[in-house]
Design goal:
The complex is a heterodimer. Chain A has helices at 5-10, 35-47, 71-80, 111-122, 170-174, 199-203, 240-257, 264-271, 273-285; strands at residues 13-15, 21-25, 54-55, 61-67, 96-97, 133-136, 150-160, 180-183, 186-189, 209-219, 222-223, 227-228. By secondary structure, chain A is of the alpha+beta class. Chain A has 2 domains: 5-80, 2-Layer Sandwich (Alpha-Beta Plaits), CATH 3.30.70; 96-285, Sulfite Reductase Hemoprotein, domain 1 (2-Layer Sandwich). In chain A, the strands form 4 sheets. Chain A has a 4-stranded antiparallel beta sheet. Chain A has a 4-stranded mixed beta sheet with strand order 5-6-7-10. A two-stranded antiparallel sheet of chain A has the order 8-9. In chain A, a hairpin with a 5-residue loop joins strand 1 (13-15) and strand 2 (21-25). The longest helix of chain B is centred in the middle third of the chain and has 12 residues, at 47-58. In chain B, helix 1 crosses helix 2 (47-58). Chain B contains 2 helices and 4 strands. Helices cover 28% and strands 30% of the residues of chain B. Chain B has a single domain, classed as 2-Layer Sandwich (Translation Initiation Factor IF3). Chain B starts with 9 loop residues before the first strand and ends with a strand. Chain B has helices at 21-31, 47-58, and strands at residues 10-13, 38-44, 62-68, 73-79. The chains are: A alpha+beta, B alpha+beta. The interface between A and B is medium-sized, with 20 and 21 residues. Bound molecules: protoporphyrin IX containing FE and iron/sulfur cluster (SF4) (3 copies). One iron/sulfur cluster is lined by residues 165-171, 187, 204-206, 208 of chain A.
């Protein structure tokens, strides 16, 4: 039987060094897997694999030692537990996320909801090369946003609300960038030093800050054979619709300008970051 | 802004421990108090003063003031709230 490896790979089947064995990559979004899915994954690994799974570096689950002739059976079995194969190859990959605002006290954005939204929008979208999104909830950067082709980091833009302030002095010390100084009962905020970490408002006993939750986006990260961190080209993004428009424009720019098999960073290097910045600023200001 | 008035009922020194024990020691001291009583918590500059006030806030207590002792330590004034 002639094996169409490209089609298999598209469907998440990774050829193993052991002949006719495949490691099946599963579709995971934002690093969350339900108990029902886990039980089904365990059952399939026992029955069709060799009894173990591998957790990938980008929050996916792979079931190794799946036999070529059982692929359809395996897919059907996984489907019963709401588990689908993931993707490999030149397309949008697993959207990764930290736990974010829904769980983590430091979180500035709901990373999981955003991951689901991006997954719905872009799952398996074909592109000149792989394209990775990563979403981290705050400056602690547990999810390492800048490793990704497009990294999203949650932040909070703050504005002191004098009427609610009790002058306790906690925020001045909670701020790690020394953006806050208190003198004569007044707070001054040096916006050039603020990194939107939200530590001031989260530590403030009276929440004496007006807040805008938003996004800091980095572009062109790569962490494989070449290593380079993604860079920001636009200021803090204050609303989600704008963020999505920027993601759309980035993928469109990549599709239009990249050579086949060229990662986003190298497209930016070749075509010019200024050209990309110009496009994205247009959307940002639009 | 309006500063709050307070009278200290008890105090605890957490400068001899490191995170996460800092917060644990402060929490234990707060448990000894009655609702509405005031605790003074002495802590080191750096990680403790960056993080302990927030942890105490997240436990539901009310922070009144952070005093700079000008010797590399700070004193946090906390009002105990409920259980
Ligand atoms: C009041 C108690 C604690 C506070 C205030 C605290 C605070 C923090 C903060 C702010 C960070 C982020 C650091 C950064 O990225 O700059 C952090 C990271 C971390 N904390 Fe804690 N923590 C506490 C207790 C604990 C406990 C009990 C453990 C484990 C026994 C722990 C283990 C860790 C680990 C493993 C990291 C990740 C470090 C990294 O990835 O760089 N922490 N903690
Ligand atoms: S990046 Fe921030 S929000 Fe996400 S898990 Fe880490 S501390 Fe929490
Ligand atoms: S958001 Fe973070 S960096 Fe900005 S003022 Fe508040 S604590 Fe400082
Ligand atoms: S932490 Fe809040 S109440 Fe305390 S000084 Fe800062 S803004 Fe004012």
């Amino acid at each position: 039987m002639a094996v169409d490896y490209a089609a298999l790979k598209k469907g998440g089947f990774m050829r193993q060094k052991q002949k006719n064995n495949f490691s099946l990559r599963l579709r995971v979004v934002g690093g969350n897997v339900s108990a029902v899915q886990l039980a089904k994954i365990a059952e399939v690994a026992e029955k069709y694999g060799d009894g173990h799974v591998h957790l990938t570096s980008r929050q996916s689950v792979e079931i190794p030692f799946i036999k070529l002739e059982q692929i359809d059976e395996v897919k059907a079995a996984l489907g019963e537990g709401g588990v689908e194969p993931g993707v490999c190859g030149p397309r949008v990959r697993t959207i990764t996320a930290c736990q974010g605002e829904a769980i983590c006290p430091s979180g500035c954005i709901d990373t999981y909801s955003l991951a689901k939204e991006l997954d719905t929008r872009y799952f398996a979208k074909e592109l000149p090369h792989k394209f990775k999104f990563g979403i981290t909830g705050c400056q602690n950067n547990c999810l390492k946003a800048e490793e990704n082709d497009l990294g999203i980091k949650g932040g909070i833009k703050v504005k002191w609300r004098e009427s609610a302030c009790i002058g306790c002095g906690v925020c001045e010390k909670a701020c790690r960038t020394n953006a806050i100084t208190i003198a004569d009962g007044k707070i001054s905020l040096d916006e050039s030093k603020c990194n939107y970490c939200g530590r001031c408002v989260k530590s403030c006993p009276t929440e004496a800050w007006d807040t805008t939750h938003g996004y800091i986006v980095s572009f062109g990260g790569i962490f494989g054979n070449s290593i380079s961190k993604g860079e920001t080209v636009i200021p803090f993004i204050e609303d989600k619709e704008k963020l999505l428009a920027i993601c759309d424009a980035t993928l469109a720019f990549f599709a239009e300008n990249a050579k086949p098999g060229e990662r986003f960073k190298f497209t930016l290097d070749r075509v010019g970051r200024e050209k990309f910045a110009e496009k994205i600023l247009e959307v940002y200001n639009g | 802004m309006a500063e709050l008035e307070y009278q200290i009922d008890d105090s605890v020194d957490i400068t001899d421990v490191v995170c996460p024990t800092t917060f644990v020691k402060a929490k234990v001291a707060l448990e000894e108090l009655d609702d509405g009583q005031i605790l003074a918590v002495k802590m080191n500059d750096g990680e403790p003063v960056q993080n302990v006030p927030r942890s105490i806030k997240e436990e539901g207590h009310q922070i009144l003031k952070l005093l700079d002792n000008k010797d590399g330590t700070f004193t946090l004034i906390v009002k105990k709230v409920g259980d």
